[in-house]
């Protein structure tokens, strides 16, 4: 009997289960708008916020609600025409020598102030600005910070950073100023030194072992008046006030358009000058007419009371030496606030210059006055 081999049935082929597509979930949709606004406010930088706005419709609607905005200007290249500021003239009551100093100051900062005016204005035909707005070359109109900020509806805290300060100073010279404005100057503090010597172990040792107090008895030495020291400080003071009043004048469009502002700071990457306005000062400018010079594009500065502190040599705790260290505190003559109040004067700057200011205000005080200009 033949045995027929048994063949197994062919295996059944079962279709493999296909992987289910992953659910495409936008996790940002789970976050409430209030949380997203917290994140966007931490970003603050207007360029980054502009990119965020292009991400989605939701981001596009949220970015205008950001309350904390920082505008960093990359560069400003002005043309050679400085006619817009050519009419700045010294006060008529000034002496001939003072007029010469004033002309020297103005001549040194005309072009930077003109560039600043083009920067903060709405348009410019012959300068080039690079910021969060569109960049165009060849004399084509570009966006300014004023235009860029119109994309925001509820700014509370605004900081604008310029690429550099307006005041050209020699290498090694220290010049810093901080000013507060309402409708006009509220106060200004200026810190300067004819030279800055950075700390080194040898220099610190020499300073500690052999201090030179021959020309430092707390009074300003006679050489300060004869070697041009006083004239140089006058230049520093006037130029700082002009730079501050020019920044204030050019901020008017931004202040008037953004009525929610509580704090406004206009500074520069060099840390040379800082103009700040708090909520009350911003509101004062909106309510009280601004006294301005349309020819010079700056806010008029009223008559001033000034206090000056001077040290031929000032050694800071870290060993830095400020030669010819000078601190000037300025308030309007009509102000009822004490111009020599050490608290607001010494706290105007960050370290190590805050310590320098605190050391200077302990020295003898000299009173000065200046007419409005």
TrEMBL record:
Q: Sorted alphabetically, which InterPro entries does this protein's record hold?
A: AUF1-like, F-box-like_dom_sf, F-box_dom
Q: Which residues form the F-box domain?
A: 25-73
Highest taxon of source: Eukaryota
Family matches, as Pfam families: F-box-like
Q: Where is the composition biased (Pro residues)?
A: 7-20
Renumbered residue ranges of the record's region Disordered: 1-26
Q: Which PANTHER family does this chain map to? A: OS05G0510400 PROTEIN-RELATED
Q: Could you identify this protein by its name? A: (rape) hypothetical protein
């Amino acid at each position: 009997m033949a045995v027929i081999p048994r063949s197994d049935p062919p295996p059944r082929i079962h279709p493999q289960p296909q992987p289910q597509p992953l659910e495409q979930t936008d996790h940002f949709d789970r976050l409430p708008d209030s949380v997203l606004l917290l994140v966007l406010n931490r970003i603050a930088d207007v360029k980054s916020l502009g990119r965020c706005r292009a991400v989605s419709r939701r981001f596009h609607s949220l970015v205008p609600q950001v309350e904390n905005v920082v505008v960093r200007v990359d560069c400003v290249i002005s043309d050679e025409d400085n006619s817009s500021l050519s009419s700045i003239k010294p006060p008529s009551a000034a002496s001939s020598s003072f007029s010469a100093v004033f002309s020297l100051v103005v001549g040194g900062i005309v072009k930077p102030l003109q560039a600043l005016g083009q920067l903060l204005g709405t348009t410019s035909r012959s300068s080039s600005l690079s910021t969060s707005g569109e960049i165009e070359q060849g004399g084509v109109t570009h966006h300014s910070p004023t235009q860029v900020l119109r994309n925001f509806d509820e700014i509370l805290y605004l900081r604008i950073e310029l690429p550099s300060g307006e005041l050209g100073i020699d290498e090694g010279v220290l010049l810093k100023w901080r000013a507060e404005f309402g409708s006009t100057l509220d106060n200004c503090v200026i810190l300067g030194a004819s030279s800055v010597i950075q700390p080194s172990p040898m220099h610190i040792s020499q300073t500690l072992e052999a201090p030179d107090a021959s020309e430092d008895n707390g009074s300003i030495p006679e050489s300060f008046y004869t070697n041009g020291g006083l004239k140089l400080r006058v230049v520093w003071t006037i130029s700082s006030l002009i730079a501050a009043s020019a920044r204030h004048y050019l901020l008017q469009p931004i202040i008037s358009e953004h009525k929610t502002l509580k704090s406004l700071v206009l500074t520069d990457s060099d840390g040379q000058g800082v103009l700040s306005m708090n909520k009350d000062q911003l509101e004062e400018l909106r309510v009280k007419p601004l006294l301005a010079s349309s020819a010079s594009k700056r806010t008029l500065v009223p008559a001033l009371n000034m206090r000056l502190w001077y040290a031929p040599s000032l050694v800071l705790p870290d060993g830095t030496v400020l030669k010819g260290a000078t601190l000037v505190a300025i308030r309007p003559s009509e102000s009822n606030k004490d111009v020599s109040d050490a608290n607001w004067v010494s706290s105007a700057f960050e370290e190590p210059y805050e310590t320098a200011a605190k050391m200077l205000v302990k020295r003898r005080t000299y009173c000065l006055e200046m007419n409005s200009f």
